[in-house]
């Protein structure tokens, strides 16, 4: 009883990892079967059939929580509808059989973990649950999954068991290793997520093109799906090449087979307004509608997806322009406006979110993607990386989105993180030479190459945070007898959207100490904090990034040292510097000094005209700096250049009696300006305006 029956069969070598459910005693794993036969075996049968809920069970008595396995819990735990409700961030649950909760009382409460909306796990004995509240305005789509997850965490706390977020990819194999299943597994690995794989088709492929395609029998794809889904807790299913309409039908059937079934399949979700919605529960689904390879070879016809069975199950679908066009009957998509139209039309097929990728948009120097969540459009811009090594970007992007969702990230952040990952991978791999053809693969695991970067990337930089950029100054703090932490806190409370520690007169040890304290403050307010010039200090305090000047560490090296997850800003006065900053992998540029200032000596001003010229040439978002105050802030923002995202200010905030009051004053001038722009343009935009 004390030994985990999963040991020796667990896909991960780590014996503490809880990935697979154990088979019931007496059932053998499906080894040695002929895949070609396509015959459904015992593994293809319903996971619950023939398996007693109590099989492999554990009794409460005499069992220490350290012996709890997820599968035991899944079969034996019952959460009743007698009393279950969400209060802000906590859920209270009553159990039918309290003894199953080990040391817990018959009713216990635990925090709802953020992001578990997407961590949907089967909960085989759960009942219909009543939810009375929207959580953070977000639709709670899988309460039973959340409850199971949280109860599991509660029961196994300190047990030594842990689980990895899990993506199942259903896709084709690329013998060249750049795209398909191979790219999916590497993208998940880079995002630190477990990846199981169901292969739909085997392609003979290299950097020149696709030489052959051999698709597997639909019933053998079904068998692979059931093998994984009946045993493992899959958070997100990501689909790639689905070569036939029949295969899509099989996939949809099986996706629906593995949610909580029947009555248990439905979550009655009562909104605050007491309207009823029925929501089906199954793993989240990311659909990459693979139709054509990068080399132009057809991998599956549009008919496969236009069957429209899969899209209603999709949490997100990620077509490129060709695929979006094919899904919409071959319409031409030539402009950003066309992309918005396509996103909306594909959304109407039932996908909850749509990302139309504009990498191939003619005449655009940027890669612009359109994200549509059914209500709002977001234009996601990124630099177009000039490289031949782009094979597998679509598969990678979709898999990375799936991986972020599996970890619990919200949808838009998952998309942004995936874009940032692909951008960094392309940048790191632009000189890579694998194969002789025109479409090279890239290196997904570039982060492993650099010891310093051995961490998962964070969510990507949001340029809207440049709106009111507070840059500290030790001299001014001394003058007004403020500590740096007081200055930082006051500016955030006044509405600063990003902070930079620009401490020119402190010793390193003191700087690191202060930076650590400021990081804690900034984290608690969810405001990014950057360090001026000092990459070592940024690393030491795990800051969100750095701001560097033209005579500091070159941005390209800074990126190598800091990795893709950190924000890098570069000071630029000219279009050439702006272009270089972009090519070096910076996230934004600081442009100035716009007006004369006493804060930085010997720094020629470029004026509003110079600022405008740099903005127009820059592929990166821009923040203006130098002599900006309440008196001239309007003239800066009136330039109306779309990538001018805000102002960076030192003395107008910190050389003042009340930092909070002055920050508030500038913030309100900026937000009035933004609101006015929105009203005048009447455009939907994604900028967040914080009062
Ligand atoms: C947002 C922002 N833009 C420009 C600068 C100037 O940085 P740098 O050129 O490194 O000059 P110093 O700040 O080191 O004097 C900045 N700090 N922030
Ligand atoms: C750091 C820096 N870089 C260009 S101008 C400047 C100083 C900006 O300070 P202030 O906002 O007080 O003019």
UniProtKB/TrEMBL annotation:
Claim: Protease is one of the keywords in the record: no
Keyword annotations of the record: ATP-binding, Kinase, Magnesium, Membrane, Metal-binding, Multifunctional enzyme, Nucleotide-binding, Thiamine biosynthesis, Transferase, Transmembrane, Transmembrane helix
Domain Thiamine phosphate synthase/TenI: 468-653
Catalytic activity: 2-(2-carboxy-4-methylthiazol-5-yl)ethyl phosphate + 4-amino-2-methyl-5-(diphosphooxymethyl)pyrimidine + 2 H(+) = thiamine phosphate + CO2 + diphosphate; 4-methyl-5-(2-phosphooxyethyl)-thiazole + 4-amino-2-methyl-5-(diphosphooxymethyl)pyrimidine + H(+) = thiamine phosphate + diphosphate; 2-[(2R,5Z)-2-carboxy-4-methylthiazol-5(2H)-ylidene]ethyl phosphate + 4-amino-2-methyl-5-(diphosphooxymethyl)pyrimidine + 2 H(+) = thiamine phosphate + CO2 + diphosphate
InterPro entries in the cross-refs: Aldolase_TIM (IPR013785), HMP/HMP-P_kinase_dom (IPR004399), PM/HMP-P_kinase-1 (IPR013749), Ribokinase-like (IPR029056), ThiamineP_synth_sf (IPR036206), ThiamineP_synth_TenI (IPR022998), TMP_synthase (IPR034291)
Cofactor(s) demanded: Mg(2+)
Gene Ontology CC entries for this record: chloroplast
GO molecular function, one term: metal ion binding
Record pathway: Cofactor biosynthesis; thiamine diphosphate biosynthesis; thiamine phosphate from 4-amino-2-methyl-5-diphosphomethylpyrimidine and 4-methyl-5-(2-phosphoethyl)-thiazole: step 1/1
Annotated stretches, region: Disordered: 1-67
Residue stretches of biased makeup (Polar residues): 37-49
Gene Ontology biological process terms, A to Z: thiamine biosynthetic process
EC numbers for this chain: 2.5.1.3
Gene3D superfamilies reported for this sequence: 3.40.1190.20, Aldolase class I
Superkingdom of the organism of origin: Eukaryota
Pfam families linked to this entry: Phos_pyr_kin, TMP-TENI
NCBIfam families associated with the record: HMP-P_kinase, thiE
Name by which UniProt lists this protein: thiamine phosphate synthase
Species: Dendrobium chrysotoxum
């Amino acid at each position: 009883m004390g030994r985990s029956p999963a040991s020796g069969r667990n896909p991960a070598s780590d014996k503490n990892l809880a990935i697979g459910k154990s088979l019931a005693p007496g059932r053998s794993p499906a080894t040695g079967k002929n895949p070609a036969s396509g015959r459904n075996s015992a593994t293809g049968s319903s996971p619950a059939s023939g398996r007693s809920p109590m099989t492999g069970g554990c009794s409460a008595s005499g069992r220490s929580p350290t012996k709890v396995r997820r599968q035991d819990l899944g079969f034996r735990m019952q959460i009743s509808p007698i009393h279950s409700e969400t209060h802000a961030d906590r859920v209270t649950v009553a159990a039918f059989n309290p003894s199953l909760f080990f040391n817990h009382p018959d009713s216990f409460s635990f925090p709802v973990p953020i992001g578990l909306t997407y961590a949907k796990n089967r909960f085989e004995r759960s009942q219909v649950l009543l939810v009375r509240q929207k959580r953070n305005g977000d639709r709670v789509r899988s309460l039973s999954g959340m409850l199971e997850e949280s109860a599991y965490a509660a029961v196994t706390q300190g047990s030594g068991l842990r689980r990895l977020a899990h993506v199942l990819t259903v896709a084709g194999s690329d013998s060249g290793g750049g795209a398909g299943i191979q790219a999916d597994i590497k993208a998940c690995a880079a995002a630190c997520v477990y990846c199981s794989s169901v292969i739909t088709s085997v392609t003979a492929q290299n950097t020149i093109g696709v030489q052959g395609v051999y698709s597997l029998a639909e019933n053998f794809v079904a068998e692979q799906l059931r093998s994984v889904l009946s045993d493992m807790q899959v958070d997100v299913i990501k689909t790639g090449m689905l070569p036939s309409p029949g295969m899509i039908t099989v996939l949809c059937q099986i996706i629906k087979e593995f949610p909580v079934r029947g009555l248990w399949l439905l979550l009655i979700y009562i909104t605050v307004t007491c309207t009823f919605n029925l929501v089906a529960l199954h793993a989240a689904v990311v659909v990459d509608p693979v139709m054509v390879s990068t080399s132009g070879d057809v991998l599956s016809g549009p008919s496969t997806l236009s069957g429209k069975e899969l899209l209603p199950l999709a949490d997100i679908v990620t077509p490129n322009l060709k695929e979006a066009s094919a899904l919409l009957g071959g319409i031409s998509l030539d402009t950003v406006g066309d992309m918005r139209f396509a996103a909306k039309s594909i959304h109407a097929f039932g996908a909850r979110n749509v990302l139309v990728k504009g990498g191939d948009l003619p005449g655009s120097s940027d890669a612009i993607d359109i994200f549509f969540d059914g209500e709002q459009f977001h234009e996601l811009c990124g630099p177009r990386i000039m490289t031949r090594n782009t094979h597998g970007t679509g598969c990678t992007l979709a898999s990375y989105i799936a991986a972020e969702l599996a970890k619990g990230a919200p949808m838009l952040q998952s998309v942004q993180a995936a874009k940032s990952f692909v951008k960094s991978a392309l940048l790191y791999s632009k000189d890579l030479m694998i194969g002789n053809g025109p479409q090279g693969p890239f290196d997904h695991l570039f982060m492993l190459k650099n010891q310093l970067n051995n961490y998962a990337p964070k969510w990507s930089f949001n340029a809207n945070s440049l709106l009111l950029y507070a840059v500290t100054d030790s001299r001014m703090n001394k003058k007004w007898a403020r500590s740096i932490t007081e200055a930082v806190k006051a500016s955030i409370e006044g509405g600063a959207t990003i902070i930079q520690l620009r401490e020119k007169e402190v010793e390193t040890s003191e700087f690191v100490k202060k930076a650590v304290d400021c990081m804690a403050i900034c984290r608690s307010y969810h405001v990014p904090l950057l360090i001026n010039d000092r990459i070592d200090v940024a690393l030491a305090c795990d800051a969100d990034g750095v701001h560097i000047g033209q005579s500091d560490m070159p941005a390209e090296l800074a990126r190598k040292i800091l990795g893709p997850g950190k924000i890098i800003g570069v000071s630029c006065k000219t279009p050439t510097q702006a272009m270089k900053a972009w090519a070096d992998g910076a996230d934004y540029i600081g442009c100035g000094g716009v007006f004369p200032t006493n804060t930085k000596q010997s720094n020629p001003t470029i004026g509003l005209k110079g600022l405008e010229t740099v903005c127009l040439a820059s592929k990166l978002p821009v923040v203006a700096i130098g002599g900006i105050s309440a008196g001239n802030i309007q003239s800066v923002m009136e330039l109306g250049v779309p990538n001018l995202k805000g102002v960076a200010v030192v003395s107008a905030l910190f050389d003042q009696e009340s930092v909070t009051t002055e920050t508030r004053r500038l913030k309100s001038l900026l937000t009035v300006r933004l609101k006015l722009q929105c009203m005048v343009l009447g455009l939907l935009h994604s900028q967040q305006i914080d009062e």
